[in-house]
Queue: 4 jobs
Job 1
Amino acid sequence: MKVEAVLFGVVAAFFGGSAALYGVWSHWDPAGTAALVVAFGMAGLVSFFCAVQYARHGRRPQDRGDAEVADAAGPLEFFPPHSPWPIVTAFGFAVMATGVVYGLWLFLIGFGVLGRGVLGLVFQYVDRGAGPQD
């Protein structure tokens, strides 16, 4: 992740410098300057995330020149076999987007369904790995 952190750090620096130069030369045009500042922020966020992951986990097998394919083998993560919450979340977003056109009441219903779907996704396996309760 160190290479990715440096790469996105360079991209963030480019967008930060571009935003400053564009802002000065365009007499602080709000649309273009804001777009470049947002691009700077997004690249900086990805760079920060990659740097933190590198600090926590160290070098990956993909980062080493002498690594074998078997070095990266093993369990990756837990992937749920089935879940109804992505469908609930998508339905809530669709109702919420339709509510933008048809009225606040439909938007609020969609927001509630979307919120329930997101909470379901987040807390579906919150007790996974916990042993039997006595």
Job 2
Amino acid sequence: MTTSPPPVNGQVIGLAHYASRAALERVLARSGTTFEQSVALRAVSDNGGTVERDRLVGRLTGALKIEEPTARRTVDAMTAVKLLEEPTAGQVSLTDAGRELFESIRTAGNEIAARLYAGIPAEDLAAAGRVLTLVTERADAELAEA
């Protein structure tokens, strides 16, 4: 007897998120990096290596659904340990150490993703991406109304 997979819902999405994040957290733990810091490193890298501090804080609060003071502490801590530097007032840039750390995290994360998504047809991944993007947009709208 074969059991059908459950339809997509919050529990299924959450279980997939926590399982894949746990795999990434093992990589982060080896470098002493928090998940929030890894998201910040990606955000700065995605912006060419330099970004306005307030924009980075906004990205962290928006993506991770954390409070602004928590996001600011994350950025401040990264500056204190020299993963980020402040080349001009109001901007932060990746340091060489920050860039190197991000590259190692990205490489390890890509290897994990390759294993997790191996063999899943591209059309299934595209459909899942569309559905999850729509769910995220709707949840963000719900939060904005609160």
Job 3
Amino acid sequence: MKGGLDAYSYAPMLVQLLFHALLLLDPLVALLIIRARPGGPLLAAAVVLADVVGNWSVAWKAVMTHPTSFLRPVGLLPITLFGIFVLLTALPLRRALTPVGDINACGSSPPRAG
């Protein structure tokens, strides 16, 4: 069993660095979303996209060799489905977390009564 810096030795160095960075990025994203920061969902989308691409790049040859072996409830399938969910919900969640004043500041101001 390998751990520490060798935990992802099966992957290329760039993917290993990404997987180690996720140890910091995932809790940061969760904290931003829990604290209702509008940037949280966008960072979540970027992080999960990098994670899905990293996992697919590592597993690509195996998927091409035995594609049905990846249709199981662990591994690549749930990572991919979760990634799709995060990507599809990032913008609606960001809009929901953005204060109304910030959205209206982009448009023209309504005329004042008086």
Job 4
Amino acid sequence: MRTPVILVGVDGSKESRAALRWAMEEASHRGARVEAMLAYHQEPVIVPAVPVGLNPHGEMPRRHPARELHDTVQQVRATMLHAPDVSECVVVGDAADHLTDASKHAELLVIGTRGRGAVREFLSHGVAAACLRNAECPVVVIPPASTR
């Protein structure tokens, strides 16, 4: 028998951390495994005309998305008594497209929302709206009140 999968979209926001926590708690009750997915748009590589190690804009270089996802999972795991294992998946491209495609193999898709309300969220062009319209499994949308 195949272990059920709870898929959760993670982008580092407090809303997605709440969704991850909810997914991990639900997985513990269901005996499911959690797959946390972070999607990002790859920016073109620009080779600076300054010596390596100097940033002309004075900004810190961005951390790799895989590190961001791993750190988020570990932060949520640290707040739980019995946290299930979480597989981490980082993909390049549109989050809604990747989540809805991966929903074909999931028992449940969990996403956080910034709180526009159910009707406005469904009618918008956001990730939650696209997942509600196109996912091939049930979708749980964690409201912002869960992030406090």
